[in-house]
């Protein structure tokens, strides 16, 4: 009986520690967001020439700063999202989104990296572009993360194929992102969507990474009533995302 | 000219918001804490309130509640513009009658103006 009471007390104590950790993350993220908002708006003012003329060279630096600022905001959002995953707390703004346009926009963001690694990226689309019912911001983050990973873990001169298949009967669309990069080892497959997990071969290829990307990606897809899975061999990986269509 | 009341305690952000909203053709008045915000919502000429949540003195929720409880202000659109995003905050703001909840860091000022324009049918 004493042991049970002791366990109960320890459990309560752990719950309290977990809650204060979670509060600390929320407070820190809120402050970080405020600093990043100030930076975001000011950089945009420079870019929009609200504060005077901007040379082409200055614009190049500004573009990099803006991109890094957006990545930082997205990282804070991912951290908050993983902190709040249990209470499904993120606000959804569901609307009809043209998935081809969304993917093309993301591809253009990564055009520099694609060129640097001499990758052959193909978007297989048909004219019958399905409108996806989703939170655009969240689903953009999903595909940004998956495409960024495909680029990061591809070898130079590799190829990435994005395909979109419509399943009218099921009222769903299946988007696949196939690369012929380093692949996911079988022993790592159960952990790949886990919080803070990074596969050893991924760390070897790219040392930077929070281990939150795929965790948040899965959570975002599921919040949008979708599903995500992957198939991998030593010759590459294909991620599949299934989402509801309008 | 339509009038926007900004209640925001971060001086820098408030300055950027005010400049952009003014440049987009609105009259702007601003409050930097909850007490001042409470006082200024009684201005009969306000067409829209941009409301932060974490404020000194009275917080944004108390101000929103007061706006909705007061006959003269109960129909004014209130955009909650905060960097809080937890479900409990969203739920509370929605229950209290926020017209929209926007997370500051996820929007550009141009997008904010677009939403203000739409709300006020400029």
- List the secondary-structure elements of chain B in sequence, H or E: EHEHEHEHEH
The portion of residues assigned to helices of chain B is 40-55%
For CATH, the homologous superfamily of chain B is named as Response regulator
Instruction: Name the quaternary structure.
Output: heterodimer
Uncertain runs of chain A with pLDDT below 50, 5 residues or more? none
CATH topology of the largest domain in chain A: Heat Shock Protein 90
Using only C-alpha atoms, the radius of gyration of chain B works out to 13 Å
Strand order of the largest sheet of chain A: 2-4-5-7-6
Distance between the first and last residues' Cα of chain B: 10 Å
- Count the domains of chain A: 2
Q: Per DSSP, what share of the residues of chain B sits in E-state strands of 2 or more residues?
A: 15-25%
If helices are DSSP runs of H or I spanning 4 or more residues, what is the number of helices of chain B? 5
Q: Please give the most extensive interface between any two protein chains, plus how many residues each contributes.
A: A-B, 23 and 20 residues
- H/E series of chain A, N to C? HHEHHEEHEEHHEE
Please provide the count of β strands of chain A.
7
Q: Per DSSP, what share of the residues of chain A sits in E-state strands of 2 or more residues?
A: 15-25%
Whole-number count of domains of chain B: 1
Largest sheet properties of chain A: 5 strands, mixed
Description:
The complex is a heterodimer of chains A (246) and B (122). In chain A, strand 4 and strand 5 form a beta hairpin. With 246 residues, chain A is α+β, with helices and mostly antiparallel strands. In chain A, the strands form 2 sheets. A 5-stranded mixed β-sheet of chain A has the order 2-4-5-7-6, covered by helices on one side. Chain A has a two-stranded antiparallel sheet with strand order 1-3. Chain A folds into 2 domains: 2-87; 94-244, Heat Shock Protein 90. In chain A, helix 1 (2-47) runs antiparallel to helix 2 (56-84), helix 2 packs across helix 7 and helix 5 (136-152) packs antiparallel against helix 7 (213-223). Chain A has helices at 2-47, 56-84, 99-109, 111-116, 136-152, 200-205, 213-223; strands at residues 94-98, 120-124, 131-135, 159-167, 172-179, 227-233, 236-244. Chain A is built from 7 helices and 7 strands. The model of chain A has no long low-confidence stretch (mean pLDDT 86). Chain B has 122 residues and is an alpha/beta fold. Chain B has a single domain (3-117), classed as 3-Layer(aba) Sandwich (Rossmann fold), CATH 3.40.50. In chain B, strands 2-1-3-4-5 form a 5-stranded parallel β-sheet, sandwiched between helices. The model of chain B has no long low-confidence stretch (mean pLDDT 91).
């Amino acid at each position: 009986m004493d042991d049970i009471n002791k366990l109960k007390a320890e459990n309560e104590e752990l719950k309290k520690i977990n809650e204060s950790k979670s509060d600390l993350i929320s407070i820190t993220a809120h402050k970080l967001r405020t600093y990043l908002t100030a930076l975001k708006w000011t950089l945009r003012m420079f870019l929009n020439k609200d504060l005077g003329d901007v040379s082409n060279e200055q614009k190049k630096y500004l573009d990099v700063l803006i991109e890094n600022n957006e990545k930082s905001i997205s990282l804070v959002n991912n951290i908050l999202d993983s902190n709040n995953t249990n209470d499904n707390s993120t606000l959804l703004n569901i609307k009809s989104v043209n998935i081809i346009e969304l993917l093309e926009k993301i591809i253009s963001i990564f055009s520099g990296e694609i060129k640097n690694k001499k990758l052959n990226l193909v978007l297989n689309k048909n004219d019958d572009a399905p409108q996806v019912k989703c939170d655009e911001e969240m689903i953009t983050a999903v595909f940004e993360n998956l495409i960024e990973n495909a680029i990061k873990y591809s070898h130079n001169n590799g190829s990435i194929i994005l395909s979109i298949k419509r399943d009218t009967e099921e009222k769903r669309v299946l988007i696949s992102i196939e690369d012929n990069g380093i692949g996911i080892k079988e022993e790592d497959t159960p952990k790949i969507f886990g919080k803070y997990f990074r596969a050893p071969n991924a760390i070897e290829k790219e040392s930077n990474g929070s281990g939150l990307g795929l965790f948040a990606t899965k959570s975002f897809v599921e919040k949008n009533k979708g599903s995500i899975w992957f198939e991998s061999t030593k010759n590459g990986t294909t991620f599949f995302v299934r989402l509801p269509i309008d | 000219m339509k009038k926007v009341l900004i209640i925001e305690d971060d001086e820098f952000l408030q300055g950027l918001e005010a400049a952009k909203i003014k440049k987009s053709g609105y009259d702007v008045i601003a409050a930097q804490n909850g007490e001042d915000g409470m006082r200024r919502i009684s201005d009969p000429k306000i067409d829209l309130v941009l409301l932060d949540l974490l404020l000194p003195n009275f917080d944004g929720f108390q101000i929103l509640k007061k706006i909705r409880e007061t006959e003269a202000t109960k129909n004014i659109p209130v955009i909650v513009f905060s960097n809080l995003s937890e479900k409990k905050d969203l739920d509370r703001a929605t229950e209290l009658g926020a017209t929209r909840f926007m997370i500051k860091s996820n929007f550009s000022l141009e997008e904010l103006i677009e939403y203000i324009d739409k709300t006020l049918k400029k």
